[in-house]
């Protein structure tokens, strides 16, 4: 009897730990000097390996950059990472979308340990708009027509036999964090996992994403894309053991990327998933 009770206690502890691991609350001592230094370092990296290209579809033009693995082996397949920018990077110069979070994929160690193609498109106008959602009590995100050009581009890229279609990953910050949610909602069978940083939630197709690997990252002090949006979305994903939520208690919208610019945790988490 004692052995049975002990086993039940271990099972309960294991379940509790699994549930607790889904939400991680962190308090980080923010160092503005270190943040500025890291951004400067990333912004100084040469980006010539991010090849400039363009795509047109459905009446829209989409400039984009494509980074290939450092070494490509004949016959091998590599993941495709789709990295989406925030609203301050809108334009057509095919340059500004390479924000610091996207440039982390240029890090020599990351490129060596996590070989992948990295797609960084640049939208001229917003691919998402935010509206108050009375049903959910938060601001939610709605996809715009120009998102179709990115869907067309992805469809074209995955015809490359060296892209592993079982390992296509999404990551985005701010507006990009909302847009990756649109992509996952519209094409859940295309993408193996998604990271949304400080995004406004898309709750339009919860059925499509309820079992997908999803990592939400948000600062509780964010008053631009309010924290309660990600909090609400995560609660809607209750029961999804592949979903996780990291909350930074003392970070806001502009500082949330600080702990993400000098870590391999994002890449490690993405690369463990496949369709």
Automatic annotation (TrEMBL):
<dbReference type="Pfam" id="PF01738">
    <property type="entry name" value="DLH"/>
</dbReference>
<dbReference type="InterPro" id="IPR029058">
    <property type="entry name" value="AB_hydrolase_fold"/>
</dbReference>
<protein>
    <submittedName>
        <fullName>Prolyl oligopeptidase family serine peptidase</fullName>
    </submittedName>
</protein>
<keyword id="KW-0732">Signal</keyword>
<feature type="domain" description="Dienelactone hydrolase">
    <location>
        <begin position="138"/>
        <end position="253"/>
    </location>
</feature>
<dbReference type="InterPro" id="IPR050955">
    <property type="entry name" value="Plant_Biomass_Hydrol_Est"/>
</dbReference>
<dbReference type="InterPro" id="IPR002925">
    <property type="entry name" value="Dienelactn_hydro"/>
</dbReference>
């Amino acid at each position: 009897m004692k052995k049975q009770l002990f086993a039940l206690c271990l099972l309960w502890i294991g379940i509790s730990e699994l549930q607790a691991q889904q939400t991680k609350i962190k308090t980080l001592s923010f160092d503005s000097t270190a943040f500025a230094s890291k951004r400067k370092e990333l912004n100084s990296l040469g980006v010539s390996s991010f090849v400039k290209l363009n795509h047109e579809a459905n009446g829209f033009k989409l400039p984009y950059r494509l980074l290939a693995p450092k070494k490509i082996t004949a016959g091998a397949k590599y993941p495709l990472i789709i990295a989406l920018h925030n609203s301050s990077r809108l334009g057509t110069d095919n340059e500004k979308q390479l924000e610091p979070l996207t440039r982390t994929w240029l890090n020599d160690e990351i490129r060596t340990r996590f070989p992948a193609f990295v797609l960084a498109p640049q939208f001229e106008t917003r691919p998402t708009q935010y509206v108050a959602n009375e049903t959910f009590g938060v601001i939610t995100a709605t996809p715009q027509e120009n998102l179709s050009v990115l869907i067309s581009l992805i469809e074209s890229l995955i015809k490359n036999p060296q892209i592993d279609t079982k390992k296509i990953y999404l990551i985005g910050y701010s507006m990009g964090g909302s847009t990756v949610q649109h992509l996952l909602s519209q094409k859940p069978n295309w993408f193996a996992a998604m990271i949304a940083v400080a995004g406004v939630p898309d709750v339009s197709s919860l059925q499509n994403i309820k079992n997908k690997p999803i990592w939400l990252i948000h600062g509780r002090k964010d008053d631009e894309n309010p924290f309660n949006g990600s909090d609400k979305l995560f609660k809607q994903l209750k029961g999804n053991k592949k979903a996780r939520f990291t909350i930074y208690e003392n970070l806001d919208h502009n500082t949330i990327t600080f702990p993400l610019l000098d870590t391999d945790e994002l890449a490690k988490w993405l690369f463990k998933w496949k369709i």
